Prior knowledge:
Helix content is 47%, strand content 6%. It is an alpha+beta fold. The protein has a 6-stranded antiparallel beta sheet. A 3-stranded antiparallel beta sheet has the order 3-2-4. It is flat. The two termini are 64 Å apart.
Amino acid sequence: MAAAAAAAVGGQQPSQPELPAPGLALDKAATAAHLKAALSRPDNRAGAEELQALLERVLSAERPLAAAAGGEDAAAAGGGGGPGAAEEEALEWCKCLLAGGGGYDEFCAAVRAYDPAALCGLVWTANFVAYRCRTCGISPCMSLCAECFHQGDHTGHDFNMFRSQAGGACDCGDSNVMRESGFCKRHQIKSSSNIPCVPKDLLMMSEFVLPRFIFCLIQYLREGYNEPADGPSEKDLNKVLQLLEPQISFLEDLTKMGGAMRSVLTQVLTNQQNYKDLTSGLGENACVKKSHEKYLIALKSSGLTYPEDKLVYGVQEPSAGTSSLAVQGFVGATGTLGQVDSSDEDDQDGSQGLGKRKRVKLSSGTKDQSIMDVLKHKSFLEELLFWTIKYEFPQKMVTFLLNMLPDQEYKVAFTKTFVQHYAFIMKTLKKSHESDTMSNRIVHISVQLFSNEELARQVTEECQLLDIMVTVLLYMMESCLIKSELQDEENSLHVVVNCGEALLKNNTYWPLVSDFINILSHQSVAKRFLEDHGLLVTWMNFVSFFQGMNLNKRELNEHVEFESQTYYAAFAAELEACAQPMWGLLSHCKVRETQEYTRNVVRYCLEALQDWFDAINFVDEPAPNQVTFHLPLHRYYAMFLSKAVKCQELDLDSVLPDQEMLMKLMIHPLQIQASLAEIHSNMWVRNGLQIKGQAMTYVQSHFCNSMIDPDIYLLQVCASRLDPDYFISSVFERFKVVDLLTMASQHQNTVLDAEHERSMLEGALTFLVILLSLRLHLGMSDDEILRAEMVAQLCMNDRTHSSLLDLIPENPNPKSGIIPGSYSFESVLSAVADFKAPVFEPGGSMQQGMYTPKAEVWDQEFDPVMVILRTVYRRDVQSAMDRYTAFLKQSGKFPGNPWPPYKKRTSLHPSYKGLMRLLHCKTLHIVLFTLLYKILMDHQNLSEHVLCMVLYLIELGLENSAEEESDEEASVGGPERCHDSWFPGSNLVSNMRHFINYVRVRVPETAPEVKRDSPASTSSDNLGSLQSSRRPKVLQRENSGTAQVFSLVAERRKKFQEIINRSSSEANQVVRPKTSSKWSAPGSAPQLTTAILEIKESILSLLIKLHHKLSGKQNSYYPPWLDDIEILIQPEIPKYSHGDGITAVERILLKAASQSRMNKRIIEEICRKVTPPVPPKKVTAAEKKTLDKEERRQKARERQQKLLAEFASRQKSFMETAMDVDSPENDIPMEITTAEPQVSEAVYDCVICGQSGPSSEDRPTGLVVLLQASSVLGQCRDNVEPKKLPISEEEQIYPWDTCAAVHDVRLSLLQRYFKDSSCLLAVSIGWEGGVYVQTCGHTLHIDCHKSYMESLRNDQVLQGFSVDKGEFTCPLCRQFANSVLPCYPGSNVENNPWQRPSNKSIQDLIKEVEELQGRPGAFPVSISSETNLSKEMESVMKDIKNTTQKKYRDYSKTPGSPDNDFLFMYSVARTNLELELIHRGGNLCSGGASTAGKRSCLNQLFHVLALHMRLYSIDSEYNPWRKLTQLEEMNPQLGYEEQQPEVPILYHDVTSLLLIQILMMPQPLRKDHFTCIVKVLFTLLYTQALAALSVKCSEEDRSAWKHAGALKKSTCDAEKSYEVLLSFVISELFKGKLYHEEGTQECAMVNPISWSPESMEKCLQDFCLPFLRITSLLQHHLFGEDLPGCQEEEEFSVLASCLGLLPTFYQTEHPFISASCLDWPVPAFDIITQWCFEIKSFTERHAEQGKALLIQESKWKLPHLLQLPENYNTIFQYYHRKTCSVCTKVPKDPAVCLVCGTFVCLKGLCCKQQSYCECVLHSQNCGAGTGIFLLINASVIIIIRGHRFCLWGSVYLDAHGEEDRDLRRGKPLYICKERYKVLEQQWISHTFDHINKRWGPHYNGL
């Protein structure tokens, strides 16, 4: 075979020269079959040669690339067919050859049959929706495709759906990554036995053809890659890739054929012999040679050498890790790194370079260079990967390489290859322009390889994976190092990463770091890492690059010009590159056996720290005004210490360094704590906002456990091992408040401005409290920590479940997504919190489900210290305290303003007992004493917070006092017990009672203390050191014996030694050391002098006096044990657990007394003395402030009262309209009726100018209204159940049964057969796009409104509305509006003189009505002089017309005909009445003047419409009134003389007739005319009802009724009997062939009801009810009459009597009959005959249509939105993959309309029509400008209203009552019925504009 191949490469003639190429092409199949046969023979050499030759010609690499290169010979080479043709030809050949003469598809099917599909391995790219189940996953990166997920059983598991960011592959079936229980049905392990063996000949051709095919592909890749000077441009690479698309796709398809084909591909890709034969470039074939040269050039230009064969070593053999690398940036001299000669590195021992590498210049002497620089490709796979990287990971190639992974052998080979190229990947990534995309592709691959522990372990052992990774990371970071400026700017040797570089700013390093974290999560790999000292050293080197990065220097003079945002990069880098690997390593150090690892890490960590201190020249003082938040080395050290003590039972002291190192270690973390206080005190304000950002990020939940927690822990460790006096004084010095701690009332602080003193002192004390009371790493168990964290977060605010998950710091590395004990999370949560279900305030914001702390948590577990530690914003601490206060008030535990409660702590782990010595050191006691004294004496700059913290510290000391002290303490003696020094011992319990008599202080000469004479015998102490002009470390005492105590410190601190050994007499003359940067020249400050204060207090006496001071009473403290001695034995008394300062003092005194009998005695003594009066309370500045505040508040309150009184009159009426307090008669809101009832004019208040008055012709008043087009009415259907949203292809919604559709059909039917102008009077429009008018009820002068609009127009602030479109908000209630409806001048509705009933007969009234209608229409005012009022009426009419689109106004066949306007105007009235009916629930049973009536503007609207309607007069002979009230002589000849007849009166819509009649009358209308019109119309309505009933019933019923009724015709009230009338109607209609057409099909359609009199009565009533309802509403609005409430079954009779249809004497005993309401104006039978005759001529020709028009659907149910499924997933799975009907692509943002179920693309440009995107377009067509869309990918609902849109929120919530916008959490979501109801309510009531506040313009782009 090899010989054959060589021969073929030699390029001999093909063995079939006589066959011309075209012939060959024609007969591919035959050739393939022939070759297959030849190859199947035992001796197949000839066949092999033949095949090779053929392939050589078919797959010639020269053709396409000539085209790719754009070469001149392209045409010649391409052979006419162009470049594409040749390739297609080649692919066709390959397919034929693979199939061996058969069909390719059959071949694919055959191969698939042999697929042992145990793994899914589906590969997806970014944005694919996948699932992750934490219950089933072994690796945190496990993911499943949707299909496998839904086919597996994951009920009750902790899973979520997620959008893949980088792409991934399905792990179903891979037991290394997930548990088998989670496999889906398809991939539950199949045993390989039942898969038949693959027949040899099936894949034989593939084995021959594929190597050539892949080689051809590689040649293309080599040819296409040109190495320009600045790296190839994106464009060139993409061009080549596009050309290769078909080839790569072909390979990809092969991988999908299953396991059998994959194993062939694996053989081909990994076979080294094949590769060598084909690519060595040794043969004579010029083409191959050229290609090999290009390959070598590419290698070289990548900085890689191609080792010649004599030096055969690849990347496999470099010795275990060292890190000295040549760095590109610094080896500029040698050109590319590739030239480092690699031969002499072999014999050096790699390990000697250990730890030698100091600084930036890195030696290139050690052999590790090979990791970076040498690549040797031995197989197709290796070179393919090389090109994949070169071309920056094209998606197709990545997918092909990943599709192969289910093949185990391939997986191992590929992983090794990947590792071998790792350094090269890093270099390419760094240079890439598209590093984001590339990062994603890299991780897409690596996560598949490294998540598998077995594989990771194998590669670690065989290919030095760890060495490679660490080296590559180090090498990567070394390219962006800069000199550190921390501490000693000039001489620092330390280098740090530069956070401004793109590498850090864009997180370019994350793929490599995430791989590293991924492999460290495997125990076997992590153990190797922790055992390998060389690696640890290298890693600590790497970490030290981040130590001290992003240094902040405090700006002292001016504000920084440019605020750098590098801190994002710095925090991200420390978290990802340092902390997460650290957590990964820590997770493997959980047991005793792993002690050795911890010792290793700690050892190298300390070495690195020591190096660091040396490098920055650190001695003992940190440089002032500098802070870095990044100390990863400190944190590594701290966390490993903590783990060692907590889990590995290591002895802490065995891993701690000496005292000196501890002193150094504590400096920088302490510096950060002090800087935090400075930042919060606004001392860094000139550094801009970013410094606050850093302080917040440092404590923020994702960072705190890798930053502030380790820092505090490290300080706790240092404090427990260092001298406590030294530590405490260091703290106060760092916080710059030493000078404040003086007994004197005045002092100078040389390092701090006075305004910052208080907050810095608070900061120092708070820090001490946290330091001493935090137990996170000092003994709390994981569950206790979780509980404490949760309680702290819940106390600040109620939280949603997801925000809690987010806010609670997670321990292991966050990539894993596994929260520590996520099971315990739920159980702890249910233990500490109650769930508050989501609440809905109608019209309010939507609430989420919240968790709120249980009462007992507030009572016992609220821990202010933890809250302070965890708050990012200071206001959260206040919020927690406010909530605590509220709880105490509510539960009656404490009425006042409580102090933070003192909480008992978990006991300390024995290793840290030393920490408590801080509480028992004299320095602290002196500070506490001094502060208590200063607070008592009201010195400035002290606050309640300071006192609170002082008491907290005292209490901590009492709780943690060492041993029970004996009462014979007096004999202690010793050097400590000098004359009257501050305190005798160091135990707080005994020091509390120690009296201090005199203190010598240094004060300015101006201070009040100076005047006093000092007592003769003063052997007092000097607190000089605390406030003298120098800043020593230690507190000064008179005796020089003290010096011994601090000798430890003194050893290394020459500076301090002199100071410490000086006697106090010299203290005045000490020269200030030069470290202080803020030293004012002598003379500028007042001179200091020494004064001696008489104190005569002890801590106990100060506490008692404080008690008096706080309670404001003399002798308020009375020792409780005098009454009940028991109290001392059990001091934990609930009475003291909550309260304010007084309670705290009492609690402390009780504890002090119970701990020592002497204290108890002394307290009693102090109480016995009558205390001298407390010094008169000076009003301090702060208190003065609060007093001023109070006064100011008082004044403000008075002003407010005044204003409110003024406002009250205006407001009163507003409130009445808003809240319905008012008596229901008042119809027009805001009117004040005058005393005399007769001629009251309506009076209106203008909300702009505040004047009241009537609306006049010249100065009309108007109602603030919002006009909007609405299609809600059109959405009514005739069934009660709302339609369901379609969630499968079968379910579809058809709109033909909606109200709008039915009305449209009716109108077009009428227009087909009847005269157009008459059709337009027979119906109403506005079911779709009708104009709805609503008002807030406020009125304003129209001229005021105009000036208001002007001011809005000039207002530059962006409002949420468009003033140019006339939009504004009501000046009083801020409701959205867009027009003003003029109020008609004239009398009040109620006392209308027209309203009194007259006793005229109906005939007279009918005549009057006709006359009034006949008058020419004119504005009531003489039209000649156009008044302001008439102008306004016209303009508002214009507004109304413009509100809706033209297509919803124009229904006439002749465009622009006046009939159109006429129809539109009365339909506006109809729309508003119908909508109000719907708002009242579809009927009027509830009665009353509901809120709708309260704020109704129908009255004014009617005036405007009537005025305009009367401009169009109807020809009197067409006036329907005539047809209703007069008999005309019937002319049978009339028939069809005119081209189209009028619409028969029986086909008219009666409600429309009503509105026409009323609007044609002059306004205001008289009540009796109204009643007359209603009575007349009711007769027509009833006749229509009978006709409709007759059409509905069957033939037999009809004839039965016809006869039954005919018999009764002669009775007296025949005209009021429905039977008689029905029979008459039937007989009349019979003449018109209406019933003749009936075939059998008709009967089947009609329900076979047996009609009883009751059911017929019900049917007739139902037909008439809608008319009665609308009419009653109209009467209610026109005449202000109340609607009576009633039961549903009596609604008809009640409304009829209310409308005056029922005779007054009507008795209701016997069942009510609707016919009794009839009042015929002319003899019934005559008029019915006349009406039926009109139909007759029509039905003779069109019986079908005639019948359809008679049956009017009147029973519309209320409109509803679509019904949504319970579970959101059903919607998501169907719609997120659904293709758009317009462009047939899957939309990026799919949405679905909740009104009609249409599927649309949000923002989709593909579906744009005339600059309108699809959603906007749909909102206009479906909702006349209102659209409600559910965004599928976000689960959110978006509302489009006209030109604005808003995000409404979601109606799907998870199990914890939370929205999941954008499906970020991917938890299952369930419908929230209440929310959906609220949405539907807002839609029906048209209140989106009022309730939702956040609107923005959409510019038609949605």
